[in-house]
Amino acid sequence: MCGIICYLGQRPAVPLLMDGLRRLEYRGYDSSGLAVFSNGSIESERALGKIKALEERLQGKRWPARGGIAHTRWATHGEPSERNAHPHRDCTSSIFLIHNGIIENYQQIKNRLVAKDHQFASETDTEVLTHLVEDHYRGDLVEAVEQALRQVRGAFGIAVMCRQEPDKIVLARRGSPLIIGVRNGEVFAASDVAALVSHTKNVIYLEDNDIAVLTPSQYDIFNLDGADTLNRIETVVDWDVREAEKQGYEHFMLKEIYDQPASIKNALRGRLIEDEGTAKLGGLAPVKDQVLDMDRLIIVSCGTSYYAGLIGRSVIESCTEIGVDVDLASEFRYRRLNLKSGTIVLAISQSGETADTLAAVREAERKGVPVLGMVNVVGSSIARETLAGVYNHAGPEIGVASTKSFTSQVAVLYLVSLLLGRRHRMSVSEGQAFIREFKSIPEKVALILEQADHIRQVARKYRRFKNFLFVGRQLSYPVALEGALKLKEISYLHAEAYAAGEMKHGPIALIDENFPSVCIAPRDSSREKMISNIQEIKARRGPVLGIANQGDAQMAHICDDLIEVPACDELFTPFLTVVPLQLLAYYIARENGCEIDQPRNLAKSVTVE
Ligand code: M6R
To answer: Residue 214 pairs with which residues in a beta bridge?
Structure first.
């Protein structure tokens, strides 16, 4: 949610900052801007809309800049507009500041500053912070930032520069990620490693209440609450820069859908012990006994990660006696939970930065239960704040619509189920059968991807509808929820998902010839009931698109259109049934000319509550 990139070194800064912004655009894209040190002054430019608009504004500008800060915005306070775009400046155009996060007490601070004659040009909370730094500035930017931040409530990742102190950028974080990247004679900073990996893999993750001072080729980190210099460990990022590029695909979302056979394999790599019919999750080693002995698991997550959690619940419950709750992270904190010993909380988050999930992690920690994390982004806040956890190793996911992170999260939850199942009632041979089936999944996903042309034809037929109902039972219900989410977020068509058994309790009233249903009905133990539900829809002239196993003649007969998936054990169907729904959403959005990787109003990493 908003992206930050900064550079200080010997190379021309503007192209480097623009490259960083392009790589961060998925984090927010309603306006952008930059400020650079140039000939003893600071030059700045901002534009409404995509990064392309800023590129156009910069054409013909030949600033001899070797350092600066840049930002791509996802609006919170103040509509998307040029004057609300970052960087914001103080009254004398000396201090320039970019900010991710939200300043909660900005109105009180603004009132005080207005009374002192500060002139405001935007509706943003960020501009308030800029003037607050100005208010404290007595010739030392670091000191002014420190004093300003002491008065601020909320979340921030900021980068500040000052005309009187060239070649210096001050960073600070609380609740919004910032990473420093170092390379010979150059220093970078960004809100996201994706913006750094093409330049350097040596990074330092700032922690909450860190303040860092960058000068070309050097950085110093202090604590906002005291002056001590901190030694933060330099980490080497294991991302391949190519993974964060489209590699010839038209969109990141399509590339990431096609990444799935590999990303599912990566989730399993080195984690299956075939002889013993079990799983090994190195990240859980420090809490192994607590995990194996738990009797209650609470999964907290949001959006797609929440739907992965719902699948995890069914699978863990089918392999163990452990009671599993799945909570929306944004609601978890409001519950009056009695968390007894034996309970573990698991936070699932692709980005590891989702504010609601992070708040749930902190609430659970306050209640004294062990909190584990499952995240994709290494070094992210949730990875660092949880006791132990498992990485997805799905590689960077850039498309705002989650695809490969979903199947990867599901894969890790199956590994957890296997590990726990073997502790509970699963025999060695059952564990081995589980592993055999699991290992066949990536190839089966690849077979579904070969049907992309057929799915595209289906999408052409269904693109004209404005409303969709997605239904499934048992493990296909969370898949229906995820399919509906994919469609609505990238095509802006109304789609809602129900457990198929709930249809008769209300939603069936919607059905007519203009309201199609996507019915997920693989050959599983509830297939007969799904067939009845489909008959009920057909009886009301509702068009039906079925997702069924290959060679299912009955489904072929009753559905208007069919997408087939290979047969597999009932437990593993979500891996296969979700992929056609991802492609369906993708092709409908593409046929309708929608912005696929950067859908309106959304951003990849949701760092506000
Ligand atoms: O990074 P997280 O997994 O914590 O993100 C949670 C949701 O914002 C996310 O899953 C969102 O629903 C998807 N990007 C939608 O496709």
So the answer is: 169, 219
Q: Is residue 539 part of a domain?
A: yes
Same domain for 230 and 369?
no
Q: What is the residue range of 563's domain?
A: 451-609
Instruction: Tell me what pLDDT residue 241 has.
Output: 66
> Domain with 26 in it: what CATH number?
3.60.20.10
The answer on 473 and 356 residing in a single domain is no
Q: Integer distance in angstroms from the first to the last C-alpha of the chain? A: 11
Verify whether ligand 1 is closer than 6 Å to residue 357 (CB atom). yes
Mutate to test the pocket of ligand 1, among 301, 305, 482 (most ligand atoms within 8 A of CB): 305
CA 553/CA 529 separation, integer angstroms? 16
Assign 28 a pLDDT band (cuts: 50, 70, 90): low
Q: CATH number, domain at 533?
A: 3.40.50.10490
Residue 408 CA: distances (Å) to CA of 144, 312, 403, 419: 44, 12, 9, 17
Is residue 112, in this structure, part of any structural domain at all?
A: yes
Please tell me whether residues 305 and 375 are part of one structural domain. yes
349 and 433 housed in the same domain: yes
Instruction: Please indicate, yes or no, if residue 242 is contained in any of the structural domains.
Output: no
Report CA(135)–ligand 1 centroid distance (Å).
38
pLDDT (tens digit, 9 = 90+) per residue, 31-46? Answer: 999 999 998 999 999 9
Residue that the structure tokens 């990787």 belong to = 597
Give tens-digit pLDDT for 185-226.
899 999 988 889 889 999 999 988 999 999 998 999 999 876
- Which of the residues are catalytic? 2, 604
Q: Which of 178, 205, 237 is the endpoint of a domain? A: 237
Q: How far is the CA of 423 from the centre of ligand 1 (A)?
A: 31
Decide: helix, strand or coil at residue 402: coil
CB-CB contact of 176 with 100 (8 Å): yes
- 281 and 163, same domain (yes or no): no
| pLDDT tens, residue by residue, 352-367 | 999 999 999 999 999 9
Same domain, 254 and 389: yes
**Domain count of the fold of the chain:** 3
The total of other beta-carbon atoms located within 10 Å of residue 504's CB is: 11
Q: Is 305 in the pocket of ligand 1 (CB under 6 A)?
A: yes
Q: Say whether pTM exceeds 0.85.
A: no
Question: Does residue 412 share a domain with residue 312?
Answer: yes
Q: Ligand 1, residue 351: give the atom nearest the CA.
A: 1
Question: Across the chain, which distance is largest between two alpha carbons, in Å?
Answer: 79
483/154: higher pLDDT: 483
Same domain, 40 and 135: yes
Question: Of the residues 407, 427, 448, which one is the last residue of a structural domain?
Answer: 448
In a domain, 466, yes or no: yes
Confidence of residue 560 (pLDDT cuts 50, 70, 90): very high
Residue 58 CB neighbour total at 10 angstroms: 18
Q: With a 6 A CB cut-off, is 408 part of the ligand 1 pocket?
A: no
Could you give the C-alpha distances from 515 to 438, 455, 508, 564, in angstroms and in order? 36, 19, 10, 22
303 lines ligand 1 (CB under 6 A): yes
Would you list the DSSP string of 443-494?
HHHHHHHTTHHHHHHHHHHHTT-SEEEEEE-TTHHHHHHHHHHHHHHHH--E
> Which of 238, 173, 243 shows the shortest CA–CA distance to 208?
173
